[in-house]
Specification:
By secondary structure, the chain is an alpha/beta fold. The protein has one domain: Rossmann fold. The protein has 9 helices and 7 strands; from the N terminus they run E-H-E-H-E-H-E-H-E-H-H-E-H-H-H-E. It has a 7-stranded parallel β-sheet, sandwiched between helices. It is globular and about 45 Å long. It binds NADP nicotinamide-adenine-dinucleotide phosphate.
């Protein structure tokens, strides 16, 4: 039996106000980690704190825009001071700015790369020193099935999510000797605000392509993240775990 106790771990989950990030934040906390979940607004951060209080777990919400380098540094310092060094980083915050390539504007490209990819470089850098010192740590990057298959209308998003996979593998090679693991999860289509925005006929078409016949839930992703954060996954690094209901198979 895999022991998924995260007692004594300090976890930072970006974009934990809703959807997949909220499920990951709550699941890690319910398994013993002290968690900090971030939201882009003060009210979102306060709501995370309240949610965690309601669950009777340890942790809080903090405000963070992951594209703001100074705010990211301040946030990581505040967590270290309040709780101790971060031992689990889940890079979950992400956005879409979909458009056909011919119509895609520079800012649609740049916003997505800044939020989904450059921020992960920066957040990882901020947590890595204490992990190297401790000779342990976990970084889990939330990529996407689209980063593997590509998707019309999502050149920016697919590039950011594919970029994460290359970053994951390279960092895993650099840090393996320090017993730090870096892995990615590639969710398929998961019920959240992000997919709620899709028209109903498109959702039904997608369901038809999923072997399990349904969209995934945030908890489907949270359970995989819990496993990757746990001792049971100590020998897994540089991997991309697809959680897509059999939508795409290698
Ligand atoms: P969501 O419901 O739209 O939530 C997005 C989260 O990211 C929110 O907590 C949001 O915070 C946060 N966020 C957005 N911009 C941010 C910024 N600049 N700085 C910090 N936080 C920011 O998304 P989701 O569906 O749960 O997706 C979570 C992750 O999974 C994303 O990386 C997404 O690309 C990936 N993913 C999702 C699916 C899917 O089908 N849903 C599939 C594959 C991959 P606020 O609430 O404060 O705005």
């Amino acid at each position: 039996m895999n022991d998924q106790t995260l007692n004594g771990q300090i976890a930072l989950i970006t974009g934990a106000s809703r959807g997949i990030g909220a499920a990951i934040c709550d699941t890690l906390a319910l398994h013993g980690a002290t968690v900090v979940g971030t939201a882009t607004s003060e009210s979102g951060a306060a709501a995370i704190t309240e949610r965690l209080k309601g669950l009777g777990v340890t942790g809080c919400g903090m405000q963070l825009d992951v594209t703001d380098a100074e705010a990211a540094s301040t946030c990581v310092s505040a967590i270290s001071e309040q709780f101790g060094p971060i031992s689990i980083l889940v890079n979950n915050a992400g956005i879409t700015r979909d458009n056909l390539f011919m119509r895609m504007k520079d800012d649609e490209w740049e916003d997505v790369i800044a939020t989904n990819l450059s921020s992960v470089f920066r957040m990882s850098k901020l947590v890595i020193k204490p992990m190297v010192k401790a000779r342990s740590g976990r970084i889990i990057n939330i990529s996407s099935v689209v980063g593997i298959t590509g998707n019309a209308g999502q050149v920016n998003y697919a590039a950011s999510k594919a970029g994460l996979l290359g970053m994951t593998r390279s960092l895993a090679r650099e840090l393996g000797s320090r017993s730090i693991t870096i892995n990615a999860i590639a969710p398929g289509f998961i019920e959240s605000d992000m997919t709620d925005a899709l028209p109903e006929d498109q959702k039904n078409k997608i369901k038809g392509e999923i072997s399990l016949g349904r969209l995934g839930t945030p908890d489907d992703i949270a359970q995989t993240c819990l496993f990757l954060a746990s001792d049971g996954a100590a020998y897994i690094t540089g991997q991309t775990i697809s959680v897509n209901g059999g939508m795409v198979m290698p």
